[in-house]
Design a protein that fits this description.
Radius of gyration: 15 Å
Shape: globular
Oligomer: single chain
Helix content: 10-25%
Order of helices and strands: HEEEEHEEEEH
Number of strands: 8
Strand content: 35-45%
Number of helices: 3
Amino acid sequence: MAGDAIEQELEDIEAMFVQVAQEATVEGGVLTLHDVGASTLYFSDRPKRVVGHVTSSQFVDMWDEGDNSFKQDPPNAVLAFLEPGEDMPDDVVVVIRDPRMEGASITYRIEPLEGEPPAHAKGGVTLFIDPFGRPLSPVSAAGMHRRERRRVRRRV
């Protein structure tokens, strides 16, 4: 499928995206996913339930394409860690901007919304990225995360 066709399909289905990396570093407001997977997965919720992938470099190339691009409306994302611990949060909600692919790494400028990103995380890191133009929709990763935090706070 050509780049424009993929982009249109992703907007039509309100795709959420997933990037997996072996480790992550955060320095000076820049998140780097090291040894990131060659593909960025996407999926949608009902009614279509579409699943697929694009290369991670295609994902970066699509960032500023179209009327409803991530460049115009930067997405929220949840950074989750395979092995959270005492010195590691379970996850962190951030706004991501300005992706750059350099070899097997992707960098984003980030703005933390919830939680504090660790300076260095090893052992598996996943970035769940919200759909184009829907940063806090009910089906967005950050929206689901925010609802779960509210539920936990209400129970306490």
